[in-house]
Amino acid sequence: MKKIRDVVEMHAFNLLAFSVFGMLFAMRPMTWLPTLVVLFCGVWALMSAVYREKLRTLIHEGDWRYIAWPLVGWFVVCLFIGIWHLGIARKAFPENAFRMALAVTTLALSVNLMAKKSFLVGLSVAGVCVALNVVYGYKVHDDYFPRISGTTNHPIHFGNFATLLAVLLSSAALLIRSYGQFFRVVCITAAVFACGAAAASQSRSSAGVLLCMLPLIFVVKTDKFHQWAVRAAASITVVLVLVIAASPAAQEKLRLKEAAADIQQVEANNYRTSIGARFAMWHAGWLMFVENPLLGIGPGKYQADFGRRIELGEVPMGDVVHGQPHNDLLHSASSGGLLKLMAYLFLMAGPFVFFYKKYKANRHDLDKRVFPIMGMQVVAAFFITGLTNSNFDLQIYSTMYAVLVCVLARLSVFEINAAEPSTLSSPAAPSC
Questions:
Q1: Between the CA of residue 287 and those of 130, 282, 311, what are the distances in Å?
Q2: 87 contacts 418 by C-beta, under 8 angstroms
Q3: Cα gap 282→276, rounded to integer Å
Q4: Structure confidence at residue 420 (pLDDT)
Q5: The dihedral of CA 317, 320, 323, 328: what is its sign?
Q6: From CA 29, how far away is CA 150, in angstroms rounded?
Q7: Cα dist. 218→80, 221, 362 in Å?
Q8: Do 306 and 322 form a contact (C-beta atoms < 8 A)?
């Protein structure tokens, strides 16, 4: 039994690191394997006093509080809001937030030398799978340019995660020099596949995630490959912008003309469009927050309240009466007031501070800065996509965010404490 436990403990984190992206575009349900590992760690924490003590010590030491407490706090606040508004009922229990809190138990897993490779191989596999998703989507649709949804069943989610994948692959290619040129070429190729997949989704909001590549421009360059890659990317970006500006067909396929038409319709007081509907939803969410500033209107009540306000003429009618405002800030504020809004901001700020402190302490070490940069990119990407979508209302975003944050946090500290690969050691204090 002890041998089985040791084997599982040795490889559980590697499996988690690989599957978080490696299985995302491979099959449905997309997050079944990371969820299984998270559940295993949760049960292990209940059954094993040693593991539980290891986790307790971790959470109370150093900078780990910036990872653990935001995830746990988000669950506690969501549970309180649910009970306050709905009482002791099944709908009062926040399942997505519970998964995020449970992901904290993975922080106590042992990390070995294969962990870094497992995560990077997962990214590369995802790059291949996301391209296959596009090929399959084009093959099974009569329309030559359908909006590709892949394994996510929704083009917006597919575009968001494909773009985040492209960002992480680009960071791996430009910042990691220890695996040789072949690895870097593979990552760049997979990143191009991911960008193509994001374009195939025709999701306009996913373009904002590309802003997360900006750190790759301003950090100290790894080597000449990094320098030339940045220059090539800048040149290609300029060319693409000029091509899109000169090509009405490209603007049509990327839904840029649709966006311009939507704005014109809003100016004509017609909100039955994609962008117009969001304006209406945001307005309704803001009114709900203003009228219920402390604890909001409660979970699951947005749709009914939105419909009521449409009937009263307080907000315009969009395309349909949606169940959430398509904005994480307004969704938190309208459903849980200031309390839930602050919990959401803590959920974003806490991990970002953790990764920034790790980057600041190692910004001049070209090998140790990689995963802290990726961590900041992940947090920024979820915040950006959350401006036009209610991410944490969905299982895929909740699981992906929590697992990615925990995996990248452990890899960030493992890079710093590589001398003790199989044990959890204290993170190095930032240099002043």
A1: 40, 9, 15
A2: no
A3: 10
A4: 40
A5: negative
A6: 12
A7: 42, 8, 15
A8: yes
Are 399 and 31 in contact by the 8 Å Cβ rule? The answer is yes
Nearest CA to 285 out of 143, 389, 129, 156 is that of 389
Q: Residue 272: is it exposed, middle or buried by C-beta count within 10 angstroms (0-12/13-18/19+)?
A: middle
Q: Ramachandran region of residue 296, left (φ > 0), alpha (ψ -120 to 50) or beta? A: left
Q: Give the span between the Cα atoms of 172 and 155, in whole angstroms.
A: 25
Task: Kindly list the averaged pLDDT for each block of 10 residues, start to end, along the chain of length 432.
Answer: 69 95 91 95 92 90 92 97 91 94 95 93 96 87 71 92 97 89 92 94 92 89 85 89 90 87 90 92 96 95 94 88 93 97 98 96 84 97 95 94 97 61 40 36
- The answer for residues whose C-beta is within 8 angstroms of residue 35's C-beta and 6 or more apart is 99, 399
Give pTM, 2 decimals.
0.92
- Burial of 421 by CB count in 10 Å (0-12 exposed, 13-18 middle, 19+ buried)? middle
Longest dimension (CA), the chain: 70
Per-residue model confidence (pLDDT) at position 6: 66
What amino acid is encoded at 36 in this protein? L
> SS3 of 377, please?
helix
- Amino acid 273 reads T
Q: Which two tokens stand for residue 163?
A: 């773009």
CB burial readout 352-383, b (16+ within 10 A) else e: bbbbbbbbebbbeebebbbbbbbbbbbbbbbb
| Residue that is written with structure tokens 């929590």 in the block | 402
Q: How far is CA 376 from CA 84, 207, 284, 381, in A?
A: 34, 17, 31, 8
Please give the structure tokens belonging to residue 32. 């079944």
Q: Are 37 and 17 in contact (CB under 8 A)?
A: no
Q: How far apart are CA 391 and CA 399, in angstroms?
A: 10
**Could you give the count of Cα atoms lying within 13 Å of 415 in the half-sphere of its Cβ?**
24
C-alpha angle with apex 239: 238 to 245, nearest 5 degrees? Answer: 90
Q: Which residue's entry shows tokens 């995963």?
A: 371
Give the whole-angstrom CA distance, residue 268 versus residue 421. 62
pLDDT for the residue numbered 145: 56
- Closest of 107, 20, 97, 372 to residue 380, by C-alpha: 372
